[in-house]
């Protein structure tokens, strides 16, 4: 399983990466996509909304289940990755690359409240 060290993680299995322009990219972890199985649908109807850290910003539907997506940091949802709308299986095949889900404008950059790669690996028993 893949756990990129440059990302921060949540206990709900999302990852976040701060970009140079101050926006942040959010997706689900390799562990999450593996646990969910084949992802068939991504639903994000919160574009344009400002949400608090931990708020549900959408969901992913897999063959086995539906899982809510939780925002890692407070911020405004700027964009949904149109590629995952058309090809939700990108979440399975490339969760840290083309399978990102949203871009946000964080209200803060309180990355200290998020998990490091080591803490996340400990959480999932990797």
From TrEMBL:
Residues 23-105 form the Lipoyl-binding domain. GO terms for biological process: glycine decarboxylation via glycine cleavage system; protein lipoylation. PROSITE patterns: BIOTINYL_LIPOYL (PS50968), LIPOYL (PS00189). InterPro entries: 2-oxoA_DH_lipoyl-BS, Biotin_lipoyl, GCV_H, GCV_H/Fam206, GCV_H_sub, Single_hybrid_motif. Binds 1 lipoyl cofactor covalently. Its cofactor is (R)-lipoate. Pfam families: GCV_H. The glycine cleavage system is composed of four proteins: P, T, L and H. NCBIfam families: gcvH, PRK01202.1. This is Glycine cleavage system H protein. It comes from Spirosoma rhododendri. The lineage of its organism: Bacteria, Pseudomonadati, Bacteroidota, Cytophagia, Cytophagales.
